[in-house]
Amino acid sequence: MFFTLLKKELFVEFRSREVTLSMLVFGLSIILTFALSSNVSPTIIANYAPGMFWIMVLFVAVIGVHRTFSYEKEFDAFSMLISAPIDRGFIFLTKWMSGFIFLTIMEALILIPFFKFLMIDFPLQPWIAIGTTLLINCAIMAIASLVSGIAMRARLSEVLLPILLFPLVSPVIIAATKISGSIMVGDPYSFWKIWLLIILTVIVIFGLVGYTLFDFITEE
Amino acid sequence: MYNFFGYFMAVYLIVFGTILGWFIIQFRIESRLLNKNKNSNEGVNLDGT
Amino acid sequence: MKPFFNNKKNRSGLVLIAAMMLFNVWNVIMNTPMVPEQHWAQKIFYVHVPSAWVGFLSYFVVMVAGILFFMKKDDYWDLVGLAAAEIGTVFMSLVLITGPIWAKPIWGKPWIWEPRLTTTLILFLIYIGYFMMRTFGGHIERVKRYAAAVGIIAFVDVPIIFVSVKFWTPEIQSHPQVEMAQQPSGILIPFLLSLSIFTLLYVLMLKYRIHVIRINSRVRADV
């Protein structure tokens, strides 16, 4: 069931490329703004690069999530989806998974422009950086999918989504900035272990809460 | 040197003023709602009996 | 429905709690010891901390009401959740106002990213979103469910927020009064007294607000 839903999600996307494309272009324009506002000064950027990166990811995630849900809103597909005889928790899991995939694709595409335009060196241990980034994406998307399930069908969804999401996601952003900052300067694992634990906690807790709550939220 | 007593007074006035104000506001909302109900022609039976 | 204070029990509750609160203020002013470096400013904490406690308690009530709303599908729990969210936000605003007033003379600047204060701020922001959802959310039945969900998520997030903010800026000093057990009993006992009186006040406020919201919804539904 899960894979059928996920396949549907991905199929819709790969035909229109609406979500990934809007995320990518939006991400590029944010990078441009960061570059212009920091004068591309190496000292400023070296300090703030991890923060900039995760701010960009957060904004882009909002756009992506909003796009996926409004697509369904336009055709009223969501009402049909939740009236189908499936465990609604699975809807949450597919939204989470597909959001994670879109976000990761976007990051993979935007990584080189980000590092090159802002003139940052690549981290010394790329595999650790990639692994932690995937986990953080997973945590951000867990919260974002849950919040979007709440906010998207309300009026004013485009405002409510970031207003609810940003404070809720703040521990993830703190942890993400700390992890990436440590990896960029090559700190040992013991320095950022605590942050990794926080990310894992968020994934587990919001995964469970989302799976449980989605059934109640989407009830008609 | 700070005027510690002034800070103390400010906090106590704000906190207890807010709580008192809250009660007054609730009281006014309540009496307005009940009056509105009494004056309307039908007079809704709020007890649901 | 009768006015809330027509009920004798509620009226005597109000009088009793008002009397206790007056005694509490008198007790704090007259009977608590002066702390050398903080002088009068230390006494702010007899209302600041109980406000924070009541705020968090209230948000906890929102979560419990949300869970019960989903389990029982009874609109009563939606009213409880809304009332608790409103009162909780009143007290959280008080915390966010009185915290900086205390911090200004003690730390020299009004805002420091202290874990408790930061957690309060983040929760406060989530609840601004909550009320925007309630007000502008549209479809009433849906909004009730969404609000219950936000209440649950917000409180589930609290420990995570607190831990992450705590490790985020470990060099920032915590509240000096954190280790309550080490405080001399001259401070501890009046503080606990104040805490319990504020909790009683909160119970009264919650009952009153539920009553008012109930009248409001019935008048609206019938007119």
Largest sheet composition of chain A: none
Strand content of chain A: under 5%
Number of helices of chain B: 1
Mind describing the biggest β-sheet of chain B? none
Share in helix of chain B: over 70%
Question: Can you count the beta strands of chain B?
Answer: 0
- Low-pLDDT stretches of chain A: none
- The separation of the N and C termini of chain B measures 65 Å
Description:
The complex is a heterotrimer of chains A (220), B (49) and C (223). Chain A has 220 residues and is mostly helical. In chain A, 85% of the residues lie in helices and 0% in strands. Chain A has one domain. Chain A has helices at 2-16, 18-37, 42-74, 77-83, 88-117, 126-151, 157-184, 189-217. Chain B is mainly α and 49 residues long. In chain B, 73% of the residues lie in helices and 0% in strands. Chain B has one helix at residues 4-39. Chain B starts with a helix and ends in a 10-residue tail after the last helix. Chain C has one domain. Chain C has six helices and no strands. Chain C is flat, with a radius of gyration of 19 Å. The two termini of chain C are 15 Å apart. Mean pLDDT of chain C is 85; it is low at 177-181. The chains are: A mainly alpha (220), B mainly alpha (49), C mainly alpha (223). Chains in contact: A-C, B-C.
Summarize the structure.
The complex is a heterotrimer of chains A (220), B (49) and C (223). Helices cover 85% and strands 0% of the residues of chain A.
List the helices and strands and how they pair.
The complex is a heterotrimer of chains A (220), B (49) and C (223).
Chain A (H helix, E strand, L loop, with lengths): L1 H15 L1 H20 L4 H33 L2 H7 L4 H30 L8 H26 L5 H28 L4 H29 L3
Helix pairs in contact in A: 1-5, 2-3, 2-5, 3-5, 3-6, 3-7, 5-6, 5-8, 6-7, 6-8, 7-8
Chain B lengths: L3 H36 L10
Chain C lengths: L7 H24 L13 H28 L2 H33 L7 H22 L3 H29 L16 H38 L1
Helix pairs in contact in C: 1-6, 2-3, 2-5, 2-6, 3-4, 3-5, 3-6, 4-5
Index terms:
A: 220 residues, mainly alpha, 0% strand, globular, C: 223 residues, flat
